[in-house]
Design a protein that fits this description.
globular; about 75% helix; 15 helices
């Protein structure tokens, strides 16, 4: 496969996965607004959402003061934000068009329909007008459905060849990064300094995090206990049965890279790095992670995940 084709497939999948994550992050943050809190707490929640999306610094540079309406607009339709939902879907469609012959009809339809529906939302909102809350919730639901349609069409219709495995790589590298950032933001930005850990506000924030990754039912199924931060961290880091956990993502990344190695006839640094990260997660326990510092663990993971993405690009995607 041409490196340019592989690159488009990889980033097509990452863009669709990121759009889904941004939609879920906005929805989770909006759920927290129904809880009693001060105005500064509300600002802190949107600061957390922007940080989870990796967009806080660029938002402050463009807008200065932080407020909900500006934050939502920046995360949804802002052209200047590379990670806005609009830009993610535009990038996905552009990448999909470039590799149209490598995609099934169902996969292309899922991508193209997502873009067309986005344009309808842009038309309905008009120039310089934000969506009202009901319209915004419909928009976020549509984005999540578009991502599910894309993921499902890939899984159910694509040949298990190199095109499929580059697609899977993009999804799981992005998903691992998103889950890690969401966990880190919760620990360092969402909990107000006046609120005790384990208090009512903390509890509802964690429930919102679970809902953001569609894990609320899974949590109660696995632990059959009330919501506890360390158990949520365990679910989203070390539980292989949880599709968005870090270890599940790396199990899938390792499988995809091994499949590419069989297609290519040779293995390389990307395979070794992924295998090492997967092995590290398999050996880890939450006791050790908390003793060493969850923030430190996640920061190192995010850096290693970014390093793996660079290695994949150098090994496969650069001409």
């Amino acid at each position: 496969m041409l490196a340019r084709t592989a690159d488009n497939l990889f980033w097509l999948a990452r863009s669709m996965e990121r759009a889904d994550f941004i939609a879920r992050t906005i929805e989770a943050t909006m759920r927290l607004e129904y809880l009693p809190k001060t105005e500064s707490d509300k600002v802190g929640e949107w600061e957390g959402a922007l940080n989870a999306a990796g967009a806080y610094d660029s938002f402050v540079e463009k807008h200065g003061e932080l407020d909900e309406e500006a934050a939502v607009e920046y995360l949804t339709f802002e052209l200047a934000n590379p990670s806005s939902i609009r830009n993610c879907l535009e990038n996905a469609r552009a990448a999909g068009r470039a590799v149209r012959t490598a995609l099934t009809a169902e996969t292309w339809t899922a991508i193209n329909d997502a873009w067309l529906q986005l344009k309808r939302f842009e038309t309905s909102r008009g120039r310089n007008r934000s969506l009202d809350r009901e319209e915004l919730m419909r928009f976020l639901d549509y984005v999540k459905k578009a991502s599910l349609d894309f993921d499902g069409s890939c899984y159910r219709t694509m040949l298990r060849n190199d095109a499929y495995w580059f697609n899977r790589l993009g999804i799981f590298v992005e998903r691992a990064d998103n889950t890690a950032r969401l966990l880190d933001v919760k620990y360092h930005l969402l909990l107000p300094s006046t609120e005790t850990v384990g208090g009512p506000l903390d509890y509802f924030q964690w429930v919102a995090i679970l809902r953001a990754v569609s894990a609320a039912t899974a949590y109660h199924w696995v632990y059959r206990d009330r919501v506890k931060p360390w158990l949520i961290a365990d679910l989203l880091i070390l539980k292989a049965a949880m599709p968005r956990s870090l270890i599940s993502c790396y199990e899938s990344i390792d499988r995809a890279l091994d499949s590419l190695a069989r297609e290519d006839g040779r293995s390389g640094l990307a395979q070794r790095q992924a295998r090492a990260m997967y092995a590290k997660l398999e050996r880890s326990s939450m006791t050790e992670i908390f003793q060493g510092g969850l923030h430190e663990f996640i920061t190192e993971f995010i850096e290693d995940n970014a390093r793996l993405s660079t290695t994949i690009s150098e090994q496969y995607l650069f001409t």
